[in-house]
Design a protein that fits this description.
5-stranded antiparallel sheet; Dipeptide-binding Protein, domain 3; binds 1,1-dimethyl-prolinium; 12 helices; about 45% helix; two-stranded parallel ribbon
Length: about 270
């Protein structure tokens, strides 16, 4: 059948990203959970390497199965892609990206805590920055600065009721993906306009949670929940303040080009 053809053609391999990503952990769970993925391999390398593989496959109209997510510029560049249905719900439904702060931040740096708490934007905002950076080659930090200048209405909401400070230091701990570089860069710019000195430290997901829970970093804007970072979140959940979603409508899953004749993870063959 077609399905067998697809599975064989991709050599029973999912083209994945970094070993430390939440989506990598979740995909290992999917391989365990689905009979149709029995014996499959998740190839782990990097998001950049996956993007190259995807580009090659799309140009040749060959089958490929990737670990994919939104917000991500991939879907802007390749609108002809689809999530495979996940009847067991391993990848969850809609994800949100949450802000977490270290214990004590509210007392130590109340203005910072308040901005972090008030920061909330839309999928389209984040995608705008990622896509523009990807198209023009301009660094995300630079594109984010322009975004802040052009979106003073939103910035005003986040900074409402916040007094200027004089060089208060804030360390944002983040992950290396474009989505997280966009949010951290935007908030860095906004906070610096208020007088903060902001540093951004990109690390593995595990280190990010460790750092906030241990009080080394002040806050993160990069916690994908309830599924993607569930294991990390659960192991530290009493050791940080959860400030809630800064973005709603994220998603993770297995993604294929629309020209592939499959719709569900269960259409694959072991
Ligand atoms: N991602 C993008 C990350 C979080 C942000 C979905 C690749 C992950 O941990 O899987």
């Amino acid at each position: 059948s077609n399905e067998t053809g697809n599975s064989k053609a991709v050599n029973y391999t999912i083209t994945g990203i970094e070993p430390g990503a939440g989506i990598t952990v979740t995909t290992e769970k999917a391989i365990e959970a689905y009979d149709s993925l029995h014996g499959w391999t998740l190839e782990q390398s990097s998001t950049a390497a996956m993007a190259i593989e995807l580009d090659k496959a799309m140009k040749a109209r060959k089958p490929i199965i990737i670990t994919g997510w939104n917000p991500h510029w991939t879907f802007a560049k390749y609108p002809d892609m689809k999530y495979l249905e996940d009847p067991k719900g391993i990848y969850g439904g809609v994800e949100e990206i949450r802000t977490l702060a270290r214990k004590g931040l509210q007392e130590d740096k109340p203005e910072a805590y308040k901005i972090l708490d008030q920061f909330h934007w839309e999928v389209e905002d984040m995608e705008e920055i990622m896509y523009e950076s990807n198209e023009t080659g301009e660094d995300i930090a630079e594109v984010a600065k322009k975004w802040v200048a052009n979106n003073s209405d939103k910035v005003k909401e986040w900074t409402e009721g916040i007094n200027d400070v004089d060089g208060v230091k804030i360390e944002l701990v983040s992950t290396p993906w474009d989505s997280e570089r966009a949010s951290a860069s935007v908030l860095k710019e906004v906070m610096e306009q208020k007088g903060f000195q902001v540093s951004i430290t990109p690390v593995d997901v595990a280190v990010m949670f460790e750092s906030i829970a241990g009080g080394d970093g002040d806050a993160t804007l990069a916690a994908w929940l309830p599924i993607t970072h569930k294991d990390f979140y659960d192991s530290y959940k009493d050791d940080f303040d959860d400030l809630g979603a800064n973005l709603e409508g994220a998603k993770i899953g297995l993604v294929v080009p629309a020209y592939m004749d499959i719709d569900s993870i269960e259409d694959l063959e072991p």
